[in-house]
Amino acid sequence: xxxxxxxxxxxxxxxxxxxxxxxxxxxxxxxxxxxxxxxxxxxxxxxxxxxxxxxxxxxxxxxxxxxxxxxxxxxxxxxxxxxxxxxxxxxxxxxxxxxxxxxxxxxxxxxxxxxxxxxxxxxxxxxxxxxxxxxxxxxxxxxxxxxxxxxxxxxxxxxxxxxxxxxxxxxxxxxxxxxxxxxxxxxxxxxxxxxxxxxxxxxxxxxxxxxxxxxxxxxxxxxxxxxxxxxxxxxxxxxxxxxxxxxxxxxxxxxxxxxxxxxxxxxxxxxxxxxxxxxxxxxxxxxxxxxxxxxxxxxxxxxxxxxxxxxxxxxxxxxxxxxxxxxxxxxxxxxxxxxxxxxxxxxxxxxxxxxxxxxxxxxxxxxxxxxxxxxxxxxxxxxxxxxxxxxxxxxxxxxxxxxxxxxxxxxxxxxxxxxxxxxxxxxxxxxxxxxxxxxxxxxxxxxxxxxxxxxxxxxxxxxxxxxxxxxxxxxxxxxxxxxxxxxxxxxxxxxxxxxxxxxxxxxxxxxxxxxxxxxxxxxxxxxxxxxxxxxxxxxxxxxxxx
Length: 546
Ligand code: NOJ
Known about the structure:
This protein is α/β, with parallel strands linked by helices.
């Protein structure tokens, strides 16, 4: 087989530092990271106390999931006040302290912004509900009369991502039904109407509010959803979108108008000193559509959900890797790589669970961290945490559980509080006696950070070594890769200068003609007589000379 051409290309702008091009960004799910006051929910002071441990791990930045004032109908992605910290997570002063500490430790801080919808507890929505149909206060959201003779059918057939119709009908205090409002997610998350200038102005101001406080960037929630086809047309049967899965073009996702919004946001971010980064959560059709969000005057990064959703198969992965690098290369943007987040089953479990799942997860991590570009880690993956699949029904909080008629358990299993130390749940998540908002499994005693720190074979030690190597090795991070010939089921590539990575996704041991110095491996590998012997589901990093 001929050697493949180089994939991806360094951008013309790499001369500038642009920290986000190769950053490893660690996602903190605020409610489940560390609880400083023992109320069972993580908080900003808890995060601040633990930041040195993230600096020790070797990440470049943290991304905080929403900590704003919220009824938490959707874990905080239902914001009631975009400029306030929810009291259960702390105060604005706590946020400022956290940011200052992060910066002292050399960590950047990215926060979430949720522009597609507010909480139904937001002042604007209360005003809309109190107003009459057609009143200006209603025009900030998407209200419409119903269909059918009595208006008792929803305005169109769109479905909520969490199940059920995407429309809810308002009732007057005396019970008389009136208009419907759109919510692509939970009924407690009404969609904003981005044709209104007031909505644009409000978010410009919210961005500035946090940029003024020193944030290094924003992760934009449902970045592809803000603009709807103005006709609000019905969608074809069976075309509903699934969370993080954008295989169909829909009249409420990926409309051209969203790009205008990001050009403006990019200009706002650029008007601040330093390099502020904007990352899109955009689950759109394919890598080319994702890349449109990354054109030079738009956003800096987008999550690579095609990579996250890829099967454990060498051909599929190679195709996704090549496709992402090529699409992003066209617009000069770095590619990101992500395996887990707060919306998906943790990858140890996705890859089969148990020892097999962990072995593959470790291999996938070393692949991820060797690819050109930037990587996102989700809290707890550095400990090899699996999904918790047996949470009691009455503990479940994800709206998916109720909206699906209790048929889909939702995303709580990847949001279980982190185990830090000690031998009893909740393992130092909070002060002694803390009852965490979701129960922490007793079996995690061996997975605490404390239990793994001194063990050279632990998953934590592997992550720490990989992140150290990423900093030490010029070949890693931004740049290009060159595929190396490899047996079926194996992917191998070079990064210049002098680095190679090989992953065996097959079920059998593989032997590759590759020599050099072994830098790191996810399992037991051997360099024998000019060849690399790679067991199944294992990745190796090599220094191969210049
Ligand atoms: C994507 C977020 O990651 C998810 O947690 C949330 O439910 C939806 N957007 C709605 O905001």
